[in-house]
Design goal:
Aspartate Aminotransferase, domain 2, 2 domains, alpha/beta, binds pyridoxal-5'-phosphate, globular, five-stranded mixed β-sheet, 39% helix
Length: 442
Amino acid sequence: MSKQSKNPETIALHGGDYRSDPATTAVAVPIYRTTSYQFNNTGHAANLFALKEFGNIYTRIMNPTNDVLEKRVAALENGLACVSVGSGQAASTFAILNVCQSGDNFVSSTDLYGGTVNLFTHTLKKLGIEVRYADPSDPKNFEKAIDDKTRCFYAETLPNPALRVFPIKEVSDIGRKHNIPLIMDNTAAPIICKPLDHGAAVVVHSLTKFIGGHGTVIGGCLVDAGNFDWTADPKRQPLFNEPDMSYGGAKWGEVVPQLTGANVSFAVRARVCLLRDLGAPLAPDNAWGIIQGLETAPLRMQQHCSNATKVVDFLQKHKNVERVIYPTLHKGAVGERTKKYFSGGNGALVGIEVKGGVEAGKKFIEALKMFYHVANIGDARSLAIHPATTTHSQLTPEELLAAGVTPGYVRLSIGIEHPDDIVADLKQALDASGKPSLKAVS
Ligand code: PLP
């Protein structure tokens, strides 16, 4: 029954094939700390390498602990297959490298995590892959940026700091007209948003954040929806239609559905080509740590979101707050998108402009007693940071503004503590931010 359940609370505990360990009947998912797997015979080994049979070969490419995590995240996202990798950054890198090669381009939203901007603008450029940025406030901007070398669209569901929900279906529809898949980073909105249900072809996650949830493990994954026809326009998707000489001339768009009976060419190619060649697997110990977090992620998301709503109400009334940024507070089409794409909560991320600009913002962060001042989001604990001088500090002033990072902006990731305690900490820090500093008094 659990296998068919669409309820995230059940999927997080029972999703995928795992019931108990086949060797020991252990209920908790074991950590398979092994690099390699004994083949039954030479024919078995050859079949595995030729993808005529699917099974374990080597932990750089697959591992049974990771497999449980992958199946559960795939089920949570309503996807068909998932590939785990060593970090969220590796997931974004693999997502692009799985569809683009030197000379190709892709169109990305301007609303992005700073690390992703660096990857796209600088590192991928050195590999000959061009990013073209499109402002998501008008989905047509994505269409305007396409040419015959455009291989995918990329965006974040709930990008911080602007916290403007992305027009998933609008952009996915444009992409599908041109056989261009939409890849969505859903790191900030697991469970409350399902991009694959709205037409995205791939979801990537930093599992480090809400899914792991305890600030203990770095990890990432790519989820293949199985809803994109990679063979519909061979010129548009050469990596899925031209023979891959690194794998006996396989045409991934054709061969994977033939071998597996499922439209999971994206996931299989990412696993058997990119994990094989670039490495960056998720260590099984880390997969296990993320599985522990995943088991309670649906419950935590409820508490994160309900606490964030209370925090937003409080902040809007405080005299030292200039502006509150939260998905539901945006006006017009952007605000409407929150209703359209989110259910069960509006996220845990809240932005504030403290009155008094950068100095007041810094004072506010330093006065926080319970919140941690860290470069992370999605921990069970409440977190705060000043993006302009930290997470986004490598961006140019123009890039900062495009990403919605003003000098005084403070990003809060609301945890699952009691809401009264969260509000009390914010209140005392905001009160302190408005007081003249000792230096000014003397
Ligand atoms: N995507 C988003 C939206 C993020 O916030 C982050 C990290 O902050 C990443 C990707 C990268 O994830 P990781 O730190 O696991 O590499």
